[in-house]
Amino acid sequence: MLKQRVITATVLLVLFLSALFLLPATGWMVLVTIMVLQGVSEWARLAKLPATSARAYWWITLAVMAGITWSDSSQTLAQTATLHFVIYAISVLLWVIVVPAWLIAGWQVRQPLLMALVGWAVLIPTGLALMDLRAANPWWLLAVMGLVWVADIAAYFAGRKFGKNKLAPSISPGKTWEGVAGALIAVSVYALLVAWATGLFSATHLLPGLLLASWWWVGLAVIGDLFESAVKRQAGVKDSGELLPGHGGLLDRIDALTSTLPLAALAMMLQTMS
To answer: Can you tell me the distance from the alpha carbon of 70 to that of 203, in angstroms, rounded to the nearest whole number?
Structure first.
């Protein structure tokens, strides 16, 4: 299983880096839209939407993504910024308030329509963030995603080696506090390496804030991971799909990104506006 996971992850990384740095802006938007559509297809299965509703869900999502793209090209910068801010604000509300309460309370949401709305709040901001961060600087998008990947890999191996204390046994029995500790250590090293590579290392007064931000990002990634696990457990499935050998579905690979990328894009937007 581990060998298959590594092979699939390596192929995906090569394809992703090629697309990130070589695709024109239009090609990247098309690719992101396809990813969002695959995500809502898997989410429809988890939400147990009937076949007819699932198809309508897919087509409405396509219309929404196309509408956002059209709006970006036809509206003023201020109007575009307002739309993006609203979408990211919905994501912040979801991940900072709604999902933690959801996980703590152990909610079991059986209404397919409500679950469909949650799926949009998870996936549409993520798709928009992929476009906004890449448009600003592909390297910044890669840096944010790299932090999540480092945390995920470190948590996996630290958990396998040292894991004894379960993080959330009723949601995801395989995750441990030792894995989280490993992730925090790994992203601390990653953040310092990024700071050194970008010249921020010389600004020593910024380093404590950078480390705190990276630790907070790990927390967000864990919340995203646990939330998808809770949704899958509610749906009675192990994986969100079978798209990726050794990994499951697309949602199984981007769960931690859905809770981090929109907030990174919002932070970038606020920094640009200030």
So the answer is: 41
Give the model confidence (pLDDT) of 44-84 as tens digits: 999 999 999 999 999 999 999 999 999 888 888 888 899 99
- What DSSP line would sit under the chain, residue for residue? -HHHHHHHHHHHHHHHHHHHHHS-HHHHHHHHHHHHHHHHHHHHHHTT--HHHHHHHHHHHHHHHHHHHHHHHHS-HHHHHHHHHHHHHHHHIIIIIIHHHHHHHT-----HHHHHHHHHHHHHHHHHHHHHHHHH-HHHHHHHHHHHHHHHHHHHHHHHHH--SEEETTTEEEEEHHHHHHHHHHHHHHHHHHHHHHTGGG-GGGHHHHHHHHHHHHHHHHHHHHHHHHHHHHHT-SSS-SSBTTTBSHHHHHHHHHTTHHHHHHHHHHHHH-
User: Which of these, 41, 15, 38, 42, lies nearest to 27 by C-alpha position?
Assistant: 15
pTM of the entire predicted model: 0.92
Domain boundaries, the chain: 2-273
